[in-house]
Amino acid sequence: MAQPPKNPNQKGHKGQPGDRLREQEALKGKHQAPPEPEPAVEDIPAPEGPTEIIETDYQVGQDNIEGTGAVPFDIHNPVFMISGLAVVLFTAVTYFFPELLGPMFEGLRNTLTSNLDWFFILAANLFVVLCIVLVLSPLGKVRLGGPDATPDFSLTGWFAMLFAAGMGIGLMFYGVSEPLGHFDAALGGPVIENGVRTDWAPLDGAAGDEMGARRLAMAATIFHWGLHPWAIYAVVALSLALFAYNKGLPLTLRSVFYPLFGERVWGWPGHIIDILAVLATLFGLATSLGIGAGQAAAGFNFLFDIPNTVTTMVFLIIVITGIATMSVVLGVEKGVKRLSEINMVLAVLLLFFIIIFGPTMSILTGFFGNLLSYAEDIIPLSNPFGRTDDNFRQGWTAFYWAWWISWSPFVGMFIARVSRGRTVREFLTAVLIVPSLISVLWMTALGGTAISLTLDGFEGIRNAALELQLFEMLSQLPMTGLTSLVGIILVIVFFVTSSDSGSLVIDTIAAGGKVNSPVPQRIFWCVFEGLVAIVLLLTGGLAALQAMAVSTGFPFTIVLLLACWALVKGLLGERRELA
What we know:
mainly alpha; two-stranded antiparallel sheet; globular
């Protein structure tokens, strides 16, 4: 999450596009925490020009409990109390009763995805449709920050920050494994056992058709990393930005619901929204940390023959959580900011290395071919009813949508902070298109290379565990040791910066919107992100991690659906103000 720097962040401030220092400071994505400001409450710039200002007596932090002893604290009551206690109890019960909760996690995930897959798919479809309607409607002319506001960042810098927001552990873990997995499943076609379809192929598969299976595999992968997830993020980010920059409310999730609840949003309705946001974000982060630990452990095993065991993963989570905690204590300017910037450079270098030394023409032509396949299949893949590909729809799509939704407060907050001064049309077009195209290129390069190598007769990628498939693919390209080491570094630093900045986002919510709360609170959230990931790995592995992402994503989906209604009401108010 990124914040505006201190000097320009004052009432009436107009951002200056091209301010390179500000752009460099904000070029962090969801993996980078902000520099700590001096004031305890962030001063949101006042709207510039006529806007529908919402008058309220609420003050950020007015419900907080403060302490100045050996362990200072400044926490929102009851958001911190309930969410913190829930996390502590969950961690303790899960650790001490793993034999009971392990099977429960898997059953919970299966129940939610098999019975409510239609709900997740319909909700994601609604987010995409809403974004498209807003882009095409007169509401797209509304400018975030008021009609006279100017963008805080240049177009190039803003695009770069959206690129940063789109990079993460997921792209590293699934960049090879997902396209290849869909390809194999599609190539095998539907498998019927006892009258039930048991394969994992998307739609109807492409039995025996290599080109058809490749096309379908890439379309299905892009479907999970394209418009739908970014529409989820866009709705949250746009809602936060509108109610903070145009309505004059605090930059917190509960502010979005003022049109629905009025002043009650500062009471229990808002408390429940914030508690759900804390839990959804924490378990979404824990899922990513568990996935990252698994892939980092596989990489160390591949390069240095270190045993790839749960013990290794737990050790990695402890060490990396410790590093993230240190960055919370010392401040991000002393290392994590530079690590994040290096990480972005390494990601770009790895991508272009694969394009150059992999099947270059296949990747370049595949990029456009995959976009066409995605366009052809997006409607059938988005259809929640009348399909037979239950495993794909429930095991892949429903989980992904719940995971993205659990991440949405995290990513949405960052995007909102760097998008003041953009029109709604400009904002939604960029947020949907730029990261989606980056994801298409990434998946085409990594996944397309893996499929090409497999079709050429190399079986190592297909036979490897999911977390090892990236390294098996790199083993067939030059400089295997170096590129594999770069891959491990990318995973680890994404791991560190996600944990660090995630703890700050969660703490901001649990501190009633304050952005400079005492350090011990941030340490608490940072430590428990790691602990939750560890106990879930110990009790149920990846299935347990995914189960918690889905279980917290479900209630938060309801929250986001209500946010869509509030967003439209807020935008209609802006249009009336301009009329």
